[in-house]
User: Fold these one by one.
Assistant:
Number 1:
Amino acid sequence: MRGFSMFKIVPVAALLLQWRTGSGQQALLSVCEAIPGQPCNTPGPCVSVPVQSATYCPGDEYCFIIQFVVVQLGLTYTVTLGQSGGAPDLVLVGPPNSMLSIRFPIPSLPAGSVTTFTLLSMTDSAGGVYYVSDSQPAVVTIAPEPTNLVISQSGQACFNNPVTLTASNDGGSTSYAWSNGILGATNVIASSGQYTVTATLDNGCTATATANVNYELPQPLGIVVNGPVCAGQPVSVNAMPAAGATFSWSNGTTGQSTTFLPPAIFSVTATTPGGCTATTFLDFTSLPPPLTVSIVGPGTICPNQPAELSSSEVFSSYSWSTGSQSSTISVNSAGTYGLTVTNSIGCTASATQTIVSAPLPTVSFSGPPAVCEGGCQNFTVNFTGTAPFNLTYESQGGITQTQTFTSSTGTIQVCPPAGTPPGATALSAVSLSDRNCFCD
């Protein structure tokens, strides 16, 4: 193909008498470069001025032009041209156009060839036969083009390792222009893509070649952390896929994903089938302390008396084993209750509380059967349950007193007031509680 045209232009006027027909008609044989995409038999001008001797590049479109002084439109003309070098004659058939000429495509000629074409004869569809009395040849030279144009790559396309593309050909002195704007035979590449070089010989003929450069690994290597990163809680991470790479993690595991236990610094190294490697580090050291929680509430529960359990601190959300989502719950039976809390960044902590059943406390009194009016007498009280005990009792005369006892046995003093009717001593418990339960 042609980067630019190089040929000698010979004025047509100087070649006016090329050959003469038996009917006295004059015509001129010349050549020209066709407009790209327009066949030679399309009416219209050429890219170049018609000349008798021209040089073209392989792949150019070029045409014969038979130019008449006088032509009869509507007829079809058959033209026979001889070729130099012993090649067969060319027989071209076509009608003239309104520009008083006939254009025929020149057959494909090999690079480096010089071919002389000579008009031998011509006839028309009306039976006319034209005799050639004088014919000056048209000479077509096909210039060499860059041959065996290749692009070689040196260096491996890995991160931070540019590669060099080098263009070469067997066509002699050549200039090179790359699709990324670089001029010269070498091109240093640092990113993936398709790169095309155009080689141009001194004669203007060109050829192109293309190379693909593929940087197999992205940098930084993509890592996805699944969920929040919390001290003391395992975290799952995934390496992004990269050109069929294999992965090796600093915790000794392989594969695209793994699990770490922060705080710590972790790393992953990816290796491609071509041997490129890339490493990414994950720094999970600057983390808040591990999240903790405890359940505040009793360890026992009394019959028919609910127990209240609550979180020790305020968090973003709560999840109890009972299904409750509040910070405090009320339970009515013994058992083990669990709580999981979540803070504002998604870290979690859990705690459990076991509640056992506690019996209601009891009390009994023992002492003298009677107390004299105006006198006092000690009575012994015995408790079942867990100290301390808080007892409210009523004695003769409707006197109510409350007393706390730190053990399962104690003493109370009963002193009936004056005017108390005689009779057996009467003591009764109004209410009683121990460390766990209350009853009345």
Number 2:
Amino acid sequence: MKKIIVLCSIINFLHTQEPSLIPSPGSPFSAVGTFTFDLSFAPNGCFLTVTNLFGIDNVVTFAINGANGALTPVNSLTLGLAGGVDYHPQGRIVAASQIIPSQVTTYSVDQTTGALTLLDGPFATGSGGISGFIEFSPDGSLLAVKNTTDISIFLVNANTGTLFTAPGSPVILPGGGNLFSALTFSPDGKFLISSVSTGGIFVFEVNPDGSLTSVSGSPFLGNPSTGLDISPDGKFLAVAETAPAQVVVYSFDSSSGAISPIQTISTQPGAISLDYSPDGRFVAVSDSIGTLTLFQVEQTNGMLSTDPNSPYTTAAGSNPAVLFSPSSFFTGVTNLGGLISMFQVVKIMFENSLSQAIFTKYSPLCCGVTN
């Protein structure tokens, strides 16, 4: 009887504790500037760069403590009204957009310290709207910039940081969007997906020259949405809808780019940004009310279930961007109050039997950075 009670207690503990987020020591951290908009992790996971719309410290880089996710400022650069930011897959270039005027600038990355230095630009984007989120293609050959009225595509010289406008760019999006509308490449780089604030999901095939071709059926029907991301295996697309506040999961056809809804699950009001963890186990959604919702991903069918400990408290107010680190060990959330919330990802690792179940906190050392 005692053995049964112990086993039941273990089962209950595992059920109620998997997975979870723990705030990093010192979180939320000052972003140095104000109206913190976007964030991007270096591919090696050692550095984090954020953008601030206001002030003179607009592109700010931090070193990450690999043991707990704490942040230490490295350097800051001026780029008025900075919007989106992204690291090139090789980790040697960072691109940052400005919402007004609509343009993008590239920076070189010191591989030892993480400090950024102006490299090239600015390069004009869009057809008159304001520029927001940006993303390099998985192979680093292209940079996509989401504007309120269109998408700009650039060919990237990874050695010099020079950007060249792709044929047919910018591509106008009927219905447009707002500053928080997102875009993402499929893992194989064959497709580019974008949300619009008026509703609908646009899917484009990416041609070898960087031009975009709308796939059959695009735009696909949907409610007004902002954040979206595709699963690391390329099988599913998750979209954060704002009215009503919910996440819609779609199956994604990697051959045609077609999407089909398979699940709708509620999230916190004012959903804004959404991100899959690189290991494909979690989806995180930020919102405008100072919380973060975490979902578990069923690996066999892509369905989401809400973490029983959600929502997690972040800095108060609106959180325009959420992103997992490349290793899935940490997740960061920007806040318009000039703050960055950092969390350690905690989970229960299941072995061959309950007696081997262990409580594990992801906490690898990162580049020897400590606080």
Number 3:
Amino acid sequence: MNRLPLAITLLAALAAAGPAQRTKKAVAKIDAFLTTCVDHGWSGSVLVALHGKVLLAKGYGAADVEAKKKNTENTLFEVASTTKAVTALAVLVLHEKGKLSIDDSIAKHLPGVPERFHDITIYHLLTHTSGMPGYAPGRGRDLAEAVRFSFAEASERETRTKAVGTAFEYWNGGYALLAGIIERVSGKSYEAFCRKHVLGPADMKQSGFTGEARLSKKAMATGYDGPTPVRLAGEHPYGAYDYRYKGMGGLVTSVSEMWRLDRALRAGKILKKETREKAYTPFSRGFERPYGCGWEITTSARGTRRIEHAGDVRAFHTDFIRFDEEDGVIAVTTNVDHIDRWEISRRIEALLFGAPVRGMPPKAAKVSRKRLAKLAGTYASAAHGTLEVTPAPTGLWIVGSGDALKALAIPRMDSRRRTIVAYAAATKKGFARHAWIHGTIDFRFEGRRKPKLIVERDGREIQFTRR
């Protein structure tokens, strides 16, 4: 009997099982990592896909703490600047239909653009190369007002500081103007056009924009700043969906529907291949950030193309990373402020592809609610101000401002913050704020009648006494 074909079949099966087993182990590590992040106050939803298959789609932590509602892969989050990808796709749809050219001057489609800005094209707005400074805000209740505020009535500090096309400068206001161009050219509202030509072809039925009554409130996450609820995902962060936010933010969606968008793009349901490649090509590789049309284009540690966009607004944060050659996606949405989204997404990527990972959070120790409640209160120091301590599911929220920032701040993480909301997870010795690769800040409590909070950092102790 010839056993050679059987041996070859077995070897082929073992060879195929190797990568599959490694992927399975990687997903288990990702899930364990995210579960541990919940111990440190993180909550959100994650989808991980590779080679066209979803490996993990799951929610972690609370969508609504008071209602005890958990996040799922279908929970709706406001994804802030990740909306720019949808805005850019809508503009490119109009470009394909011949309704406009991305090489058109913005003056062709916007009312009242001063002549000195006529050299700015739609493509410059798409790629953040208009020369307008990034700190110039999006403003205006209507389009005419938005154009006037952006150009004619812009302060000297807010007007163009660089020649068009010579540098990358991330300008939110440019994407508000793109929303206006979509409305003027299509004759429809920005939201309606995006729904029909981007969300619709992607079968993103649950998605929409802030303020829309059609969105399911039951499916929405509540965003939190520490222990404080800020707003529902579908509520306006700035009071109304006008040119202060339209086009640059405001998309409400889930990680499951972000995956559908990726699938629709790959299948050519929204744009032709050559137009997609235009979107995925940076204006210049020599600029500060390699940005195409609504996507940042970077290279992974493996030498493959990453097509991504992130979004940050108070209480909601998003990373949407698409791996071109690997046909993969990492989508992360979160409804808490105190953990930076990239600390989550970059570690997911490292675990998925077997790269070294540093600064992984430790599991929290068990602690009773009764003990946490006893530690709550205001703790004061004559030299360092006050800290507010409140119970959390697996530890304590510790909030500091003013002089107390010196006790809580981690220089590379908190240099620009006026208030720090630290999540101190329970440990065997007390509590600790995990700061990824930047170390930890340890907290311990002493005394019963008048408890003291000792903050240990950088080899020294700072003492606070409860009032």
